[in-house]
Amino acid sequence: MRRQAAPAAAGVFILAAVLLAGCAAPQVSSLVQQRPPGLAAKAEITAVPFFPQEDYQCGPASLAAALVHAGREATPESLLPQVFLPGRKGSLQAEMLATTRRHRLVAYPLAPRLEDLMREIAAGVPVVVLQNLALNWAPQWHYAVAIGYDLESRQIVLRSGVTRRATMSLDTFEHTWARSGHWAMLALPADRLPVTATETSFIAALAALERVAPAAAHAGYEHALQRWPGSAAAQIGLGNASYALRDLPGAAAAYLRATFDHPASADAWNNLAQALHELGKREEALVAARRAVDLGGLRLGTYRETLEGILRQP
Amino acid sequence: MTVLFRRVMAGFLIVCMGGLTVPLPALAGIVGTDTVVAGAERERLASVLDRSEVRVRLQALGVDPANARARVAALSDAEAAQLAAQMDELPAGGDLLGAAVLVFLVLLATDIMGYTKIFPFTRSAR
User: What ipTM was predicted for this assembly?
Assistant: First the structure.
């Protein structure tokens, strides 16, 4: 009897130990094993405001914290009509981004990397995250704001729910975050580039901002062009934002620069043609419009319409 | 097929009845930045249909009409398309202390405490 009890007890002990220790998460493990160059071992942004959430309202509460930190006025109550969906008792990711843009801020979706999340925090930018606190087949979706981390103690610090400074094991966080597809976003004034920004994602974020807040997007394109001077999309975007603000000379100048740097960009030629046409410069407009049609491509139909529009008016 | 037909008819009626409440952002002759970035142009009618559908769904989920219109206007074309296609399936973050059954709370607790030994088990059980 006693001989059998010992291995059984050992088994229970080992099982309990394994259960309590949990299992390390992949991104955390690799970050802890070899900290990437330039990544601080720990950081925390203590100035991020906190709005304790009421029922189901972690979306508006988390977003309000990020917006206020970025210099905008917002409260969870003021955001309810913009982002809360009563019938779903929650907030959709797309509307978290859209509401940020309605506050004239760039809504930048982060790459699904814990390292990027940490780099943004270390640079002083709080990160709104979506977690599934439960399981894939029984989800418990929850927004929180990541404001700090410590790689040595393997912990993350969040503004979360009713807890101002919620600490969570980084491993557990990674698992809950992975179940949302590692979804995270920043809310930043357009003149401030995220430290982990990539050209494609940032210009796409500005393009989405442009339809709601063209003036803010205009400032964003100017800053993007300092970082990526040759970006065709940013050059055209700068022109489009000027055009939306009815600054036709500014728009034409931006498109012209795009055609210099990217003579094969039919979009740039087409938009230049339209801006010149509206400025009353018919001959130049015709040259640009014909160039766009000659280059062709997916949007040949649009280029032809532009050309015909110019030809119609003597 | 019928779904497509219904959507086209709905869009047609919306336009016909002067209820074209969604502003068309694209201006004459200008290729929009979102189009430049995406590389491909979303058909204008498809975008209008997506947006009117999202607006109707938002209202059905308790958003008042004026707010629904403003919310739709702030979406990008891609977001509008995504919401039109799967608004009911997409995660809606917010249900932190919601209507959780006991078993669920137990799972949540184990999840938060040591969780990782439980999660692979639930995954493999599927």
Answer: 0.86
